[in-house]
């Protein structure tokens, strides 16, 4: 028997509507696609503010990457909940999954560039500025220990996404399987294998979802391998990413946005899905 939780039922309804090009604010009120995702980003990142001191380009690039990441997640979800199996669905899922991983790492890089500017680090090699560079992290610690400690606390998540991105972009695409089993609407999983996640996932307190053979991080153990089910992995990653970004911006002294519009308040109160 297949099960849908209340939360997954809301996701399913949201994806059904979006597949019909209906981006609902509340009731019968819909928005344009870009406006829906822009408001979604603003609501999830209350500390996103345009910086009057010259970081506009960087923080706006971060915001656009977040919007594209939200779009990619939804495209993965729309295809995940389609009630038939085909190679085209599988390839759609992998296309948006690979793009999402690249966007997430790009978001980390945007945060690093903001840090360089806001803390006046003036790191010599801008192409080396990222949240993994030990020399850059050392400079951050000198300027703001709280930010350095925050990065350390989330290092498993950051390292995992970077390793996964490097595999996808620079090395090899995955070994894929379609595996039968109970979950959601369909009775099968489209899964992908990257061994680089094995060393990270054990530190993320992953646990099995109820009524499923897949973990909360979308991990399916199959023939002694840990496969990634792209939708649940992506959803968990985005649920971790959004508060990570907002808290990071807060640590960089970005104030909480006070100019919420009626649409933003209604979106926060009534929208379904992620």
What integer value in Å does the Rg equal? 19 Å
Query: Quick check: average pLDDT?
Result: 85
Give a count of the beta strands, DSSP E runs of length 2 or more: 6
For the largest beta-sheet, the strand count, sense and barrel status come to: 4 strands, antiparallel
Termini separation (Å)? 25 Å
Which stretches are poorly predicted, pLDDT < 50 over at least 5 residues?
A: 181-185
Residue share in β-strands:
5-15%
User: Any idea how many domains?
Assistant: 1
Q: What's the tally of helices?
A: 10
Give me the side-by-side strand order of the main sheet. Answer: 3-4-6-5
Write down the overall geometry: globular
Report the order of strands and helices: HEEHHHHHHEEHEEHH
Class per helix and strand makeup: alpha+beta
Question: How would you characterize this protein structure?
Answer:
This protein has 274 residues and is α+β, with helices and mostly antiparallel strands. It has one domain (6-270). The chain is 56% helix and 10% strand. The chain has ten helices and six strands. The strands form two sheets. It has a four-stranded antiparallel β-sheet. Strand 5 (219-222) and strand 6 form a beta hairpin. The longest helix is centred in the middle third of the chain and has 32 residues, at 87-118. It is globular. 33% of the residues are buried. Residues 181-185 have low confidence and may be disordered.
